[in-house]
Each structure stands twice: as C-alpha cells, then as structure tokens.
Amino acid sequence: MASPRLETYCCPNRDAATQLVMSFQPDVFCGVCIGSASISVLLTILQLLPKKGQSPRKMPKASSSSTILLLISVCDIFGGLGMIFRSSVWLGFPGFIANISAVNGTDMWPSVFCVGSAMWIQLLYSAGFWWLFCYAVDSYLVVRRSAGLSTIVLYHMMTWGLAVMLCVEGIALLYYPSLSSCENGLEHAIPHYITTYAPLLLVLVVNPILFRRTVSAVASLLKGRQGIYTENERRLGTEIQIRFFKIMLVFIICWSSNIINESLLFYLEMQPDINEMPLKNIRSAALITWIIMGVLNPMQGFLFTLAFYGWTGWRVDLKWRKREIPWESMSSSTVGENAYPSPVNYQTNIHDSKKVSTTDSQQTDEAISMLSEGNTSGDDRLTRSSPIYQGW
C-alpha cells in the first residue's frame, strides 16, 4: 500500500510507531499486499482491454477526459506492480531486508531498495491523485467550453511536475543529512507527511466541489439546449451525477483508512511510551487499519474502472480492427450539402445563423458526451434517446 511509513522504515533509527506497524506480522501483511495488488492489476487490465461483441465507443472527438481516465488507471497499475515487487522481495529475501535495520551496516543495497521501492509507489499514487484532480477540473472546464485536447499538455506538466517535486522534496527532507540520521525528530518527518498527503487531501476537499458545480452546469446546459428540461435530460444529468459520486465513493473507501491510521500513529508518537496498557485499544486500531490499507489501497485501480466504465465483461477481443470515426462522415455530408452557396444574400444570412446554432449544439453535445463517455450500454441507450443526441 501507499504510506509514508514505507519511507520512514528505511531509517535505521525509525520511530516507535513506525516500528510497531511495520513489525506486526510482516509476512501476513506482505501476502495481503501481493494478493490485493495482483487481483487489482489483473482485473484493471481486463477492464481496459477491448471486448468481443462490443461496439467501439463513439465520440464526437477525442477528449482530454478519456485520456485522463486512462492515465489514472495506468498509474494504479504501475503502483500496484511496485507493491507486488516490494512485498515479494520482503517475503523472498528476509535476510536482505533485515540489513535495513543495521545502523552501521556496510551493504547499501537494502537501503537503496527500501528507498527506491517506497518512492516508486508514492510517486505513482501521488500522480494518480493529481490526475484525479485534473479530471475534476477538466470536467468543469469542458462544460464551460474552456478545455480541449490541447489542455492535456498542461495537465501532464502539472501532474508529473508536482508529483516529482513533492516526492523528491519530502524524501530529501526526511533523509537529510543522511539515512543514518533521519527521523531524529518531527522536523524531518512532518514535511515528508505533508508532501505525501497534500494531493490526497486536495482530492477529498476540492473534487466534490468541482463535481457539484459541473453537475449544476450540465443541468443548465441541457436546459439551454432545447429550452426545456425533459425527463431524458433529467435522467442524463442524474447519470453524470451518479458517476461522480461513484468516483468519490471509491476514493474515500480506499484512502480513508490511511488518514485514520496516520492520525492514530501520530497520537502514539506523542506519548512517552506507546506500550502502556491504556493505549492498547489505540494500538489495536492502528494495526487493524494498517492491514485494511494493504487490502484497499491496491484495489483502487479496479474499483475506479468500475466507476468509470462499469463492468465490461470477460470476453476479450485482441484482434485489431479499424474503427469508424463518425464525425468524418458527418463532415463529408455537410460539405456535400453546402457545396453550392445560395446567390441570395438573405438566404446566406439565414444559413450562417443556422450554422452558428448548429455549431453551438455540437459543442453542447460534445461537452455532455465527454462527461458520459465510458458508460455501459444502458447509459448509451439513454443518451441516444435524449433529444440532444438525435443529431449524432
């Protein structure tokens, strides 16, 4: 799982709270992480592969939202692979891992592995948090018609730049001036924990606000499209709202245990002796949430694909086939219809006004379809039955 305790464990003089959770049934904990991460990675890949008997998703144009959803899944897959590799080494080479605790050890490779694997996991999941934040921003901007494929470059710069910067900064402050002297006080640990949990808390606080505003903007967009708010438009708005709710529900389920566990461990760190009898219940709660983190953190990848696309089925289609691009035929037919302009001026003006209206309608359709892309076939039937999709 992704926890800043993984990095603090690399310090030979680690704090008592970190020692408590990292030394609690390490074989069982690593086995839980391997099992959960393996299941999640396999099911996530299965969800993303094309399926037999399913028609390709038809979009008016490629969108940055679909790219962001894919990148979130990719970050979860590689983060899960990092967990599998790290836990496998811990289980397979216990003597190699035991050298991490040696204060005056001469072998540097255990520490390099400890720091490198922990940074890999933290970086990938932090990037996933930033991409999820970008998805909320992009959804809002798409409805406001202020985003497009060109903004994906800005999202890449922000996501990877901030993820790398915060990860490196937190690790540098934790291990300063060296591994042998890190974690000597809270001035080393607190900046590291802040840089780790800042993107997580950002998603928890800001994403619901952006999603709520996006849903309100979608309702206004649907009303303005036809001048009325029919049952189909209402149901479409509800589907988008449910999709956002599923995304936040998965995120809260997978990461709330981290916040609870970290709060308990910080409380234990403030105590003179964490082994005192009155602290038994707090120690037990910290150990229980520690195991829960090992189960839920890696499962985020698969659960997110369910929230994004629904269950896509087992029948995988690995055959390559050319997909029809629906807007190409529409563009060619439009050119054919307008190949001979009217010689009368007032007819040309009418045609121009209709063209502007049609363009505005197409932008509205594209904005809504970007938010509802990836839905199941039932959602596709719903959107196609809506009046704003009749033109597509």
From TrEMBL:
What's one Pfam family the UniProt record gives for this protein? Ocular_alb
Q: How does it sit in the membrane?
A: Multi-pass membrane protein
Keyword check for Glycoprotein: yes
Membrane-spanning parts: 28-49, 69-89, 109-133, 153-178, 190-211, 244-267, 287-311
What Gene Ontology molecular-function terms does this entry list?
Answer: dopamine binding; L-DOPA binding; L-DOPA receptor activity; L-tyrosine binding
Keyword terms, alphabetized: Cell membrane, G-protein coupled receptor, Glycoprotein, Lysosome, Membrane, Receptor, Transducer, Transmembrane, Transmembrane helix
- Can you cite an annotated GO cellular component? apical plasma membrane
Q: Where is the signal peptide?
A: none
Disordered: where is this region?
371-392
Q: Where does the source fall among the domains of life?
A: Eukaryota
Q: Name one GO biological process term.
A: melanosome organization
Q: Where found, per UniProt?
A: Apical cell membrane; Lysosome membrane; Melanosome membrane
Gene3D superfamilies assigned: Rhodopsin 7-helix transmembrane proteins
Q: How does it assemble?
A: Interacts with heterotrimeric G(i) proteins. Interacts with ARRB1 and ARRB2. Interacts with MLANA.
- What does the UniProt record say this protein does? Receptor for tyrosine, L-DOPA and dopamine. After binding to L-DOPA, stimulates Ca(2+) influx into the cytoplasm, increases secretion of the neurotrophic factor SERPINF1 and relocalizes beta arrestin at the plasma membrane; this ligand-dependent signaling occurs through a G(q)-mediated pathway in melanocytic cells. Its activity is mediated by G proteins which activate the phosphoinositide signaling pathway. Also plays a role as an intracellular G protein-coupled receptor involved in melanosome biogenesis, organization and transport.
Family membership noted in the UniProt record: Belongs to the G-protein coupled receptor OA family.
This protein is called G-protein coupled receptor 143
